[in-house]
């Protein structure tokens, strides 16, 4: 089939499974699809991504579980990869939200609508192409796994991930869904019924692949990034095959990237104060507190015990811990 024929691939030719549509920690209904909780609005986008995406060896994909530091990692990766093209004073990250510069594969590029052509969009992109995705590793298109494209994954302590998700998704809730109370959202999170969840399978999918193929998947944690941004920006550059030279290091190029992408800098930029990503999302929603441990202000002792148990149960033996 010619590539243009596969635009907006619908899946008439794929088997139809009964899809459960349920309420979960998300701004829309979730469907249990290919063993993960996919927002109903994005199912066609995920299918189209799986069916039509042709990876290039130079592609870079920032993958994450929602609310774990995606925006920050996208900004750091974009600034690192494109450091030769832009000066600190005239940088696109000063006037564009990171999600505008690096589009999400399932929710933007392959989002099925009448007005844009994903394959045309992809064919017009300069290399290396940078993308983001929340799709679990096991549901990524074959072509992405089989190519030499690189994946950088970020995850976060589930306590802070939950809190950030609860606050964010309540602000985005699509009518007629009512906002979720803390306790009901927490039960959903502990059951794994959360957008792109279960969160443990999401993390473990990328975690295992990063152990099996360290040149394919770089696995990062928000907390580690916070502790030593400089070290991780260097490791991102090395992983992507564009290490900083001694001269770049002594010129302070890593520090410039860290500063440009810092929470304090990004959240006060005009584009992130009053801009919109699309008709639903205000850019300012991506920047809340940017701290580790805010969950202590919200969790009861029984919530702490319960989530600690789930983490222990789901991650034990994997080598991944928080
Ligand atoms: P909080 O809600 O805990 O503040 P995502 O980008 O995956 O949606 O994650 C959002 C979380 O990352 C939010 O956490 C947000 O404040 C934080 N964040 C956004 N930009 C950041 C940055 N440049 N540095 C550190 N944290 C950032």
UniProtKB/TrEMBL annotation:
Coiled coil: none
KW Signal (keyword) present: no
Molecular-function GO term, any one: sulfotransferase activity
Residue span(s) of domain Sulfotransferase: 57-319
Top-rank lineage group of the source organism: Eukaryota
EC number: 2.8.2.-
Sorted UniProt keywords: Transferase
InterPro entries with a match to the protein in the record: P-loop_NTPase (IPR027417), Sulfotransferase_dom (IPR000863)
Family: Belongs to the sulfotransferase 1 family.
Protein name: Sulfotransferase
């Amino acid at each position: 089939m010619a590539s243009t024929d596969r635009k907006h691939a619908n899946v008439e030719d794929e088997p139809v499974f009964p899809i459960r549509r349920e309420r979960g920690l998300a701004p829309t209904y979730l469907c249990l699809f290919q063993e993960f909780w996919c927002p109903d609005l994005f199912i066609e986008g995920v299918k189209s991504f799986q069916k039509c995406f042709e990876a290039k060896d130079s592609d870079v994909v920032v993958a994450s579980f929602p609310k774990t530091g995606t925006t920050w990692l996208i900004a750091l990766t974009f600034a690192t990869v494109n450091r030769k093209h832009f000066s600190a004073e005239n940088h696109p990250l000063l006037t564009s939200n990171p999600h505008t510069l690096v589009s999400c594969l399932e929710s933007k590029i392959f989002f099925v609508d009448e007005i844009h052509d994903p394959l045309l969009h992809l064919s017009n992109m300069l290399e290396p192409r940078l993308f983001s995705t929340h799709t679990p590793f096991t549901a990524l298109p074959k072509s992405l796994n089989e190519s030499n494209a690189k994946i950088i994954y970020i995850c976060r302590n589930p306590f802070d991930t939950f809190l950030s998700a609860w606050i964010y998704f309540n602000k985005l809730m699509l009518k007629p869904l009512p906002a979720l109370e803390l306790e009901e959202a927490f039960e959903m999170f502990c059951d794994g019924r959360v957008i792109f969840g279960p969160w443990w399978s999401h993390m473990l999918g990328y975690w295992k692949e990063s152990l099996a193929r360290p040149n394919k998947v770089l696995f990062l944690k928000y907390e580690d990034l916070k502790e030593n941004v400089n070290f991780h920006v260097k490791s991102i550059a090395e992983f992507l095959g564009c290490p900083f030279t001694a001269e770049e290091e002594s010129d302070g190029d890593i520090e410039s990237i860290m500063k440009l992408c810092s929470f304090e800098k990004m959240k006060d930029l005009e584009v992130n104060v009053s801009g919109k990503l699309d008709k639903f999302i205000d850019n300012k929603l991506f920047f809340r507190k940017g701290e580790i441990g805010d969950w202590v202000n919200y969790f009861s002792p029984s919530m702490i015990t319960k989530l600690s148990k789930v983490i222990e149960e789901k991650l034990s033996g994997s080598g991944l811990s928080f």
